[in-house]
Amino acid sequence: xxxxxxxxxxxxxxxxxxxxxxxxxxxxxxxxxxxxxxxxxxxxxxxxxxxxxxxxxxxxxxxxxxxxxxxxxxxxxxxxxxxxxxxxxxxxxxxxxxxxxxxxxxxxxxxxxxxxxxxxxxxxxxxxxxxxxxxxxxxxxxxxxxxxxxxxxxxxxxxxxxxxxxxxxxxxxxxxxxxxxxxxxxxxxxxxxxxxxxxxxxxxxxxxxxxxxxxxxxxxxxxxxxxxxxxxxxxxxxxxxxxxxxxxxxxxxxxxxxxxxxxxxxxxxxxxxxxxxxxxxxxxxxxxxxxxxxxxxxxxxxxxxxxxxxxxxxxxxxxxxxxxxxxxxxxxxxxxxxxxxxxxxxxxxxxxxxxxxxxxxxxxxxxxxxxxxxxxxxxxxxxxxxxxxxxxxxxxxxxxxxxxxxxxxxx
Length: 411
Hints:
It is a single chain. The strands form 6 sheets. Strands 1, 2, 3, 4, 5, 6 and 19 form a 7-stranded mixed sheet that branches. Strands 8-15-9-10-11 form a 5-stranded parallel sheet, with helices on one face. A 5-stranded antiparallel sheet has the order 22-23-26-25-24, with helices on both faces. The radius of gyration is 22 Å and the shape is globular. The protein folds into 3 domains: 7-113 and 241-309, 3-Layer(bba) Sandwich (FAD/NAD(P)-binding domain); 117-236, FAD/NAD(P)-binding domain; 327-397, Enolase-like, domain 1. It has 10 helices and 26 strands. It has helices at 17-29, 54-57, 70-74, 132-141, 155-164, 187-199, 245-249, 294-308, 375-386, 406-409, and strands spanning 7-13, 35-39, 77-80, 84-88, 93-96, 101-109, 113-115, 126-127, 147-151, 170-174, 203-205, 210-215, 219-223, 228-231, 233-236, 240-242, 254-255, 258-260, 272-274, 279-283, 287-289, 320-325, 328-334, 341-346, 353-359, 362-369. It is an enzyme of class 1 (oxidoreductase). InterPro entries: FAD-oxidoreductase/Apoptosis, FAD/NAD-bd_sf, FAD/NAD-binding_dom, FAD/NAD-linked_Rdtase_dimer_sf. Its EC number is 1.18.1.3.
């Protein structure tokens, strides 16, 4: 079909993992219902973490290998490159840029987030890696000998730099802080990571706050102190902005910049649900929050889909997030910030750790560094800490650092 139907029993706005999981849950609950997916992205749902992880480090660099096969598996009608410009909760309709008005019985907002942009610069050599088309362009430009500058030393910037190091390009990372990822990790880890990144040929430039760009034969980056650098390609990893414009314009309740949902992921409007990045929910351990990671998209998308199809399931879940940086990897819960008090528990080899982040003597985050199969226990301990039944002095012996990662078992 080239255009959407006039109406669907279940309509999903957004084309990411949350949309895929919701469509699967709806179809399982109701084999006959109609499902429509309207996505502004030009590609169908893929496993997006691979865009900064597996596709760079694995054997298959084709993003088609990460296709979730949503349409084939669910029978949903998917329309890519379709932006929804208006949502009318009272009329139960949405309007697209193509001028189509589509009515719905139940609607899911799974609009996710977009890359935080730097000014209005437009150039094919400036890349914000969020979708498949961005990945394809960066893969084409990342050739041996090319100078690539990654701006941003956080979660995304560090992953992109690590991935690009496999291409033969000359990779440099420019970031504001004193060391890579020092907003999240203590010196015991950041010092190690600096050595690892250097060993893989990545040059690190701390204290660099991007002020302007100059587009010429090469791209010149200027920072606020007068430093400058040149590159053939610039990847900007400056964080993300939640796509809540549609919800806000429709009058849905927002909370802390995200879309407020109840225990069943319903928004303030009848028959409208929200999942993924944009959903502001009640975390059973850490309280009200939103989280922009894959586990949240998968779990909340599935629950929202079940409830759209008539279920009555509470989203009672604390999402995790994870990353792999060369031979190191981690899983984490809650908020990781070095502004909190930290309790570090290392193994004898100083290669694996459990790090507890505390605020007012209560766990507010857990980092499992090279420590595996411990997320359920970490949730249990964090909940006990926040309930006041576990003192900070008792945290050290709760989880033993180390273990073998699932991906290590495959090699």
